[in-house]
Design brief:
By secondary structure, this protein is an alpha/beta fold. The chain contains 9 helices and 10 strands.
Amino acid sequence: MLFGNKELIFDKPLVMGIINITTDSFSDGGKFISNNSTSEFDLRKIIKEINFLEKSGASFIDIGAESTRPGYSPISTQEELDRLIPVLELISETKSIISIDTRKPEVMKEVLKFPIGLINDVSGLTSISGRKLVKNHNVPICVMHNSRDRTKSLEEDLDSFFKAQINQLTVFGIKEQNIILDPGFGYDKTFEENKKLLFDFDYSQYKNKVLIGLSRKGFLDKLFNEPKTEDMDEKSAIASIIAAENGANILRVHNVAKLSKKLEDRIDVC
């Protein structure tokens, strides 16, 4: 599958690392704030982390500049660009595919001037201008299920949402193979629904690739019947492996090294 000018073969689950250039993301907001500052970001820290994620086994690096956690504080288009553009200017030579996590068409327009391989839009690419950009740049798009229709079962809701999104985007002219699906763990879902998504869904039923974002999600504590600890990355990796065994193609995590090691061990055992 082509992501910009780079091609990936999905003969195994691939790992996506996370870079949040934010002050308020739920688990790592403020990680890249400069010393002696409350709002300035340290480019050196960001580039160092990107290089580390790449060396740790990340096929994708998902960069976001606005938090999407519950109760997040919205930022302006300009502020989002001010956080993203300086980073993109410095990472044009990465081997990993760069994904941009944004909902704003104005941001998409500017970042697509760089070698971006994927747009990750948690709102589902609902804007016409965003769809035009994705179509014209022939860039893959990840659309996420983020709101439950409780008149339907979880299975019916997810299935109808994905079918509707694929239909709307392909009618618009976006190639079906460029549409990646995300079931939206933690977004407007109960604990039992998240659990069902993890254990009872066969993601290989979809012709499209499926991206799973389980990293450091709050429901994992209850799932593993453990209090919240610094070992959330272990729980995240184990849950991601379960999703991979159920057909997920892209595993989005903060701790790439830990998940990559578990995937290697899994392949060795097989």
